[in-house]
Amino acid sequence: xxxxxxxxxxxxxxxxxxxxxxxxxxxxxxxxxxxxxxxxxxxxxxxxxxxxxxxxxxxxxxxxxxxxxxxxxxxxxxx
Length: 79
Hints:
This protein is of the alpha+beta class. The protein has a single domain, classed as SH3 type barrels, CATH 2.30.30.90. About 20% of the residues lie in helices and about 40% in strands. It has helices spanning about 25-30, 65-70, and strands spanning about 1-5, 15-20, 40-45, 50-55, 60-65, 70-75. Strand 4 (about 50-55) and strand 5 (about 60-65) form a beta hairpin.
């Protein structure tokens, strides 16, 4: 199932499918490791609309929720 990265829960793993950001932001996210086929783990979800932290390529990266909504991931969820 493909969903925005912002919808995965803390501790949940997902694999990046595509990034639907404007070109400059998509390049920046790619540089941070949010590239197709990369595994991402949500390590912290802040309050709604706030920051979230993700483990990607061995580094913990903080993203605004608005940016994490532009990264689409595939999960193993069955819901």
